[in-house]
C-alpha cells in the first residue's frame, strides 16, 4: 500500500509571505548573526549572505519582490537553511529569514485546495497558491526560484528576476 502523504513545513517569512516546502528540503533551523548586505545590482529579494558551517550562503526572501516591509538586516535572527535541489555551483544551500517558527504538517493531495482566485502569473517563482489546515500559502517553483537565486550570485549576469 502506497503512502500518499508528505511532511510539509509552513514558513512565515519576514516579508509576510507564507511558503510551503517539503520538509526534506530543510537542512537546519538556526538563530544566526545578521547577514551581510546585498551587492549593487542584486534584486531586492536577495538580502545578502551569511556564514553557515564554514560556507557563505545567500539569504533570500521571495516576498521581497512584492513587499516593502522587509525589516532591516540587522534585526533578522532566525533562518531556515534549505538544501539547493538544482545543484547549481555555489548554491548547495540558501537561507530564508523567518518571522516565526516553521509549522509542520503532514498532508495528502486530498487535504489541499488550489486557490483559483490568486494569480501567480506575475511571479514565476511561485507555482501556485493553496489552502490547507487553515493556511493560505505560496508553493514555490523550486527550479525557477533557485535559478533566480543563482543569477544573483553574479548580479551582472542577470540582474532582473
Name its key features.
161 residues; three-stranded antiparallel sheet; OB fold (Dihydrolipoamide Acetyltransferase, E2P); mainly beta; single chain; 7% helix; 11 strands; 1 helix
What would you report as the Rg, rounded to the nearest angstrom? 15 Å
Summing up helix and strand content along with how strands pair, one would put the structural category as: mainly beta
CATH class category: Mainly Beta
Tell me, rounded to a whole number, the average pLDDT: 79
Compute the number of helices. Answer: 1
The end-to-end distance, rounded to whole angstroms, is 42 Å
Low-confidence stretches: none
Any idea how many domains? Answer: 1
Shape: globular
CATH topology: OB fold (Dihydrolipoamide Acetyltransferase, E2P)
Order of strands across the main sheet: 2-1-8
Strand content: 35-45%
Provide the helix percentage. Answer: under 10%
Amino acid at each position: 500500500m502506497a503512502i500518499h502523504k508528505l511532511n510539509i513545513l509552513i514558513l512565515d517569512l519576514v516579508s509576510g509571505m507564507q511558503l510551503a516546502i517539503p520538509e526534506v528540503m530543510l537542512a537546519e533551523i538556526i538563530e544566526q548573526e545578521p547577514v551581510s548586505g546585498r551587492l549593487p545590482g542584486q534584486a531586492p529579494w536577495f538580502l545578502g549572505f551569511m556564514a553557515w558551517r564554514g560556507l557563505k550562503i545567500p539569504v533570500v526572501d521571495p516576498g521581497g519582490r512584492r513587499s516593502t516591509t522587509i525589516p532591516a538586516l540587522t534585526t533578522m535572527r532566525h533562518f531556515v537553511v534549505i538544501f539547493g535541489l538544482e545543484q547549481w555551483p555555489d548554491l548547495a544551500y540558501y537561507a530564508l529569514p523567518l518571522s516565526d517558527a516553521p509549522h509542520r504538517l503532514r498532508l495528502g493531495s486530498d487535504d489541499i485546495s488550489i486557490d483559483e482566485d490568486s494569480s501567480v502569473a506575475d511571479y514565476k517563482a511561485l507555482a501556485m497558491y493553496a489552502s490547507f489546515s487553515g493556511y493560505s500559502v505560496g508553493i514555490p517553483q523550486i527550479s525557477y526560484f533557485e535559478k533566480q537565486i543563482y543569477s544573483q550570485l553574479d548580479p551582472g549576469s542577470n540582474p532582473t528576476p
